[in-house]
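Much of our argument rests on the idea that a fold can be written as discrete symbols. The amino acid sequence and the backbone structure tokens for this protein are reproduced below:

___
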Amino acid sequence: DNITIDGTVSVIISYDEFSAQRQILKAKRYHQSLQRKIPTIAKLDHKSATELSWENKATNFYSTMYIFSSRSYTIGRGEVIHNLLLDEYAFWQLGTHELIMASAIQRVPLSPRTKIRIGSTANGEDNPFCEMYRAAKEGSAIGGSVYNDHFYPWFMHPEYVMYPDDLFCLPRDDQEILPNMNSEEVILIGKFVDSYNFDERVAMAMIRWRRYKIAEMASLRRSGETQFIFSQEFCEDDETCFMTAGDQAYSSDIITDKIRNCIPAPIQKNIVAVDSKTKSTISATLDIWLDKDEGKGYVIGIDPGKGKISESVASVWTFSEGYKNKDGIEVPPTMQHCATLAGFYDEWEMAELVKEVGHYYNGAVLAPEDNLDIVSHLRDYPDLYWREDTRTGKLIRAIGWQSNLATKPYMITEVSRNLEFLDCQDIR
């Protein structure tokens, strides 16, 4: 656009000074290469450490590109931006995202010729990029986001292959048919061939390359736990890539397997609730994976959000204890997720909706997080979870579960201990 459209202003914001300088160098080299093929394009002028401009005095053509680091973004608020690129957004220093977005995005006109692009390598879940990507993905599905999600897995790049005669093949991988294929590799081979139309030899070469890169990353620590960096740096799907590499509370292998088994809810049920005092009505969609069974009991966990600011989530579960069968074989417990209701609701709205879900699921037990705002709206429900003391096991006359520094270690331990028994197909 800077070369072909007069008056274009483009802004690239990278995450550090070195990357910003590399972006400037790339732009200059690309222009030089293009100018050799098309000598009539506008002349490039490197005006300052952060500004490039293109000018053709004969036609009065002029356009500008600014390239900044997120740590030194200084462009004023007055100038229009036609193209805005935020690079490696997940690696920006915390606090800079909102400051830059507030000033930069508002200067991009709503026009078919303007573009905002935000890209990054994944960097765990606890950063604004992950939140923004997931909001775009979920919002695109329901028409509630102005951004579109784009995901590019590593195997779209043709250079990521390794054939048997490659110098870097791992021991015993220097053969056409790889030995000891694990279940994950078998699934990937099928995906490469069936979904992406790679031939089997290329698919095998991609797995061979993948094995080398995983071994390379696992070698960073003696324990080998750094192999999980691969899923961050070379994404295969847009969930496992956000799993934090390094020390983890839960087994990444189990988490990965469960993510791969997730499917969209096959049933959607409309839930309508009426507030008993105001007679106001609210409706929501309950996503159902396993419909109610008249002979079963259910528990609904409630994580209340902050009204229209953060999402409230209720999930329906059914449980059964493990036991020994007549042959003395241990039968593990079942922890089956059945349904999820999620959305941006005020406390009374969420409470009324969840009560309706509870009535539908055979009068399920409601187990909210101990939040006075929502608990006060649930007190008229007949079956609520009354808290136990985690140390003594004694019942306390208080509704809901407390999430605090004292209880979180217990929660993490319990989830980790039972993770393999959880059956949940909701990717959220």
